[in-house]
Amino acid sequence: MNQISFHIPEAMTASIEQEYAQMKTIIADREIVKKRSHQVKDIHFLSANLQSFMPEIEEEEHEGIYLRLITNHAIRSKDIGYLQSGNLTGMNSVQGLSFLKEYTDKPGIFCTYHMGAYRGIIGILAFNNINIALVVDTKTKNRQADEVLKTVSDINRQTGLNTQARVLDAEALDIGVQLTKAIQEKYSIVIFLDGNSGNGGVYKRDTKSLKVKFLNSYIWSRTGVALISYATKTPVIPVISFYEAQEGKTLPKSTFRFFDPIVPDWGKVRMQEYVHNTTRQLYGVLETYLKKYVDQWESLFYFHKFIDLESIPSQNKPELVEFEQVDPALRFRFHNKQFGLFKLNDDCYLLNKRTYQTFPLKPESYEALFRLNQPISLREIQTFLSESQIRTYRETGIIISE
């Protein structure tokens, strides 16, 4: 395993630390406004994903993770500006950078994740004169391709290198052909395992999808990384990034770990076995680092799109006392561990955090359930909810007794 770290040069640190501190304040103020207007979809889906994949994390910690995650996003924007400047004097490696030199002539598949300073992988490879073919979904390609190419161009201008880069659409029908061609032309592939939708989009399930155990759940993963590796005899190099605190400094250090290459051996391992083992090994890297850096994993906002819903265990209905026998003084509250209320603009919704089902609500129903964030006696609840509504919410677990 090799490790690279880089940090903002001392001459730039003071101004950027001040800007970062201002960003933290702006983000905190913005989230207060969003919370007041109930625009909290993101935190509810993040909370649902934490419950699915890492239930050992207490619910009370979810909001803090959310705030740190979006703050880390602000740091990431600084990383890109730093890389585009071509000023990588802060880059260092305990083992040195020589391990990357072999990929200037012999391509590799750099498989990484949406964690830490993940976008910096482009700058690191470009700085080491490694031609890059970045694979992203259609939306990301349309939005970020120019910025990626500019990053490489700026580094070339600053260093005198001639690194080449291209951005490929993971959802293209001929993406396999494009990847094979890129490797033949000595381009190394850069692909994000935890956001790879592949041809057909994120929800497509076919023979190129593999069900994988991931943390406390199961997901469907595309297998293109391992398939292309096996077909072209190209090694897969897992890479993960994370921020590390620096003593006495506000800004953290950006660190990248490059793991030993996974090399296909046609003589010993069949393709299906290689694909399964490689995919599982790649997710194993992510699992290990999530246990320490979960608040740096951007995919927490959308990783439910890959979850195998059929693997979610069914929930036994609680045994309830007949409604007529419930003491009117008994207090009920909204079950906010399993459900979430949010608005998109003025439209109201209820999210089941266990199944990820989302239900539209009438404004009056939304307000009634939101009111139940505080425990209220059945007697008082009956003044603003009908008996049939109370029965339904109680039987479905949307409200629970204290």
Write the layout of secondary structure elements.
Blueprint: E1 2-6, H1 10-36, H2 41-53, H3 62-84, E2 92-93, E3 109-112, H4 120-127, E4 132-136, H5 138-159, E5 165-169, H6 175-184, E6 188-192, E7 209-214, E8 217-222, H7 224-232, E9 236-244, E10 253-258, H8 271-293, E11 331-334, E12 339-344, E13 347-352, E14 358-361, H9 363-371, E15 376-377, H10 378-381, H11 387-395, E16 399-401
Helix pairs in contact: 1-3, 4-5, 7-8
Give your account of this protein's structure.
- With 402 residues, the chain is an alpha/beta fold.
- The protein folds into 2 domains: 308 residues, no CATH class; 79 residues, Outer Surface Protein A, domain 3, CATH 3.90.930.
- Helices cover 39% and strands 19% of the residues.
- The chain contains 11 helices and 16 strands.
- The strands form 4 sheets. Strands 2-1-10-9-3-6-4-5 form an 8-stranded mixed β-sheet, sandwiched between helices.
- Strand 9 and strand 10 form a beta hairpin.
- Helix 1 packs antiparallel against helix 3, helix 4 runs parallel beside helix 5 and helix 7 crosses helix 8.
- The longest helix is centred in the N-terminal third of the chain and has 27 residues.
- This is Lauroyl/myristoyl acyltransferase.
Mean pLDDT: 87
Unreliable sequence segments: none
- Strand order within the widest beta sheet: 2-1-10-9-3-6-4-5
What's the story with the biggest beta sheet? Answer: 8 strands, mixed
**What structural class results from the helix and strand content?**
alpha/beta
Shape: elongated
Structural domain tally: 2
- As a percent range, the share of helical residues equals 25-40%
- Tally the helices: what do you get? 11
| DSSP summary, beta strand count | 16
Cα gyration radius (Å): 24 Å
Order of helices and strands: EHHHEEHEHEHEEEHEEHEEEEHEHHE
Instruction: Give the strand content.
Output: 15-25%
- Terminal CA distance reads 52 Å
